[in-house]
């Protein structure tokens, strides 16, 4: 099912790009008013704007819906088992063994160099 949604999503994206590129901008009407450029088209002077803009709106809505569908599929496949804070493992440092005052080097004035642990 996800593969089908991906295929439809890509086809809609390509069609949406093509429809946007086919439409003429607002500045194109200004040139047609002064006689330069052809104001007639395949769907008529005003019919093309309505048809192309409505088709673009429909394709944009479908693109939005397929995007939501793909997000839903992605969430279902990668659902986390626990929250981020629960998954983090903090290493606990090992406790050092207790040190008696006799083991501290330099504490006793009579200590020898051989008494210092290496």
Biggest sheet overview: none
> What is the overall shape?
elongated
Whole-Å distance between the termini? 68 Å
Which structural class do the helices and strands define? mainly alpha
The oligomeric status of these chains comes to single chain
Please provide the ordered H/E string of secondary-structure elements. HHHH
Number of strands: 0
Could you list the spans in which at least 5 consecutive residues all have pLDDT below 50?
none
Mean pLDDT across the residues is: 76
Percent of sequence in beta strands: under 5%
Helix content: 40-55%
Radius of gyration over all CA atoms, rounded: 37 Å
Number of H- or I-type helical stretches: 4
